[in-house]
Every structure is written in C-alpha cells, then in structure tokens.
Design a protein that fits this description.
This protein is mostly helical and 347 residues long. The protein folds into two domains: 148 residues, no CATH class; 105 residues. Helices cover 82% and strands 0% of the residues. It is built from twelve helices and no strands.
Amino acid sequence: MSHPAKPPGLIKRHWQSYNSFGQFFLALAIIAIIVDAVICFNYGFTQTFWHGAGFALLAIVFAVLPDAAAQEWDKGGKASAITLGIVCIPLGIVAYQSHLGYSAGVRVGDIQRTTVQNVKYDDARGNVEEARKTLALFEGRLASLEKQHGWAASATADSMRARLPALELAISQEAARGGCKQRCLDRTRERDELVERIKTLEAKTDYTEKIEAAKRVIASAREKAAGTKHVESAVVNQTNVAAQLWLTFQGREAADAINPDSVTQTFVNTGIAGANSLAFMLMAPVCWFVAGRNRRRKSDDEHDAPIAQPTTSVARETVNATATVAKTEHMRLGDIAALRANMRATA
C-alpha cells in the first residue's frame, strides 16, 4: 500500500518557489542580509543593546521591502505597492546612516589610534636623536677645551684651589712691606692666571658631567623607544594611496601628489566610507529584488518538475495491473475466436 509524500516545509517551499537563477540571487541576498544586520547591530550597540537590535531589524526589513512592493504591484495592489515604495525611502536613509556611522567609526578610529601611536614612536625616536645631539655638542666643547689647554687633561680644579691661599698671603705680605711692587705684581699675575685655570677646569668638569648625563638620557630614551612600536595601518595606507591618486588626477605636481595634506586625506577617507556604506546597504535589497523577479511560473514547474521514481509497492501494483489487463485481453480474443468458429459451423 502506498503512502502519500510528506509536503515540503516552509523554508523548502519558499526555496523551491524560485527558479535556478533566482535561487542563486536569493543565496547571495541571505548572505548580504546577515552582513547588513551585523554591521547595523554593531553601529547601534555603541548606544544600547536594543538600539543594535533595532538597527539590525531595520536592515532586514529594508532588504525585503522593495521586492514586497513589486509583488504587490504585480498582484494589482498599486496603492499598497506605492506605499511600500515610499516607506523604503526613510528606511533606506536610516540604514545608510547606520552603515556610514559604522564604517566611519572603524576607519576614523583606526586612523586616530595609528596616528597617536606613531606620534609616540616619533617622540621616542626624537628624544634619542636630541640626546645624541646634546652629547655631540658637549663632547665637541670638551675636545676643543682640551686642545686649547693641553695642561687641563692632567690637572684638577681642587689642586689649583689649594694654591690660592698661599698666593693671597704672599700678595698681602708684599703689600705690607712697602706697597705692591714688582714682586707683588708677579704674585698677583700668578694668582689671576691660577683663577683662570680654575675656571677652565670647572668648565671641563661641567662638560664631563653633562656628557655623562647625556649618555644616561640616551640610554633611557633608547629603552623607551625599544618598547614603543611603529604601527602600520591598512586603513591609513588605503587612504593615503586614494588621496595621492585624487591629487594626481587633479594634475598636481608629483611632489605635492605623494604628500597629501590632512584636509585631502580626511575628504578622501569620507568618500571611501560613504561609497563602501552605499554599496553594502544596496547589495541585500538588490539581490533580494532580482531573486523575486525570478520566481517559478506554472510553465516553469511543468518544465522543471522531476520525474518521479516508482517505489517498490507502486511497481508491484503496476505489474499486477498490467498482468490483469493482459489476461483480460487474452480472454477477450479467445471469445472472439470461438464466436467466429460457431458462425462458420452454422453457415
């Protein structure tokens, strides 16, 4: 005994209502809707969870609404079709806003984080270079001082300061004996020279201390620079290349085109975010609409309907029915032959 085939489920019936071309675009539409919903949810989630859920639902409704309007028009419901078409406008604006907000947030945020990080990196490297310049400056001054005063390499300011009291005493004693004569003047000149040498040695000590301090600064700056990484951002590189092309198409000189200013970079980045958002937003409704224009008609069903394969029970019943028909036909032919024989005998 044969059993009736189980009717297909809702999803399967919906899938089978499209021809092969429509099924292809329906699959693309489903993927695009998922992407749309995730993007819109992430945009709204920056406010609250329910904003995210609402924007995701809006993306789904906007994707299927144009096809729904077209179906209403095909069925003769022109008023409802026009109404749905008008509703698509504000929904599309809000959907575009959510896409643009998400894209801009991602791109601008990436650029800002990259810029801040690379400023830190440049500052760290700049501190190393500045300390190196300071070190080179004082090393040069120390070398020049030692070259002009060869005696300074082995002398110390403390040893020379120790000689000052004796010279001051000698000068005062000579002055007490009868005024500052030649010997007093010689002692005075010797004292003044000693004071100048002490100043030179103090300058040498100062340069040496500054050199050591510069070396410590370099070591510290290098340590900080080693822990500060330079960040390479795909978004920044994309924006720079697009800005360079924009300036090139405007006929700028090569030197200007390869160094776009911040205004051009911001303008180009906004354009990229706007174009990407528009493409993402339109992809799902376009694919769903194309799929809807490729639903099966009755002629398609008859043409594409698969040939049913008989089950065992059906095949057995078919064989039995065929045998019965053959037996009946055989008996009918026998009756006809007997009738003809009787007619000949009677004649």
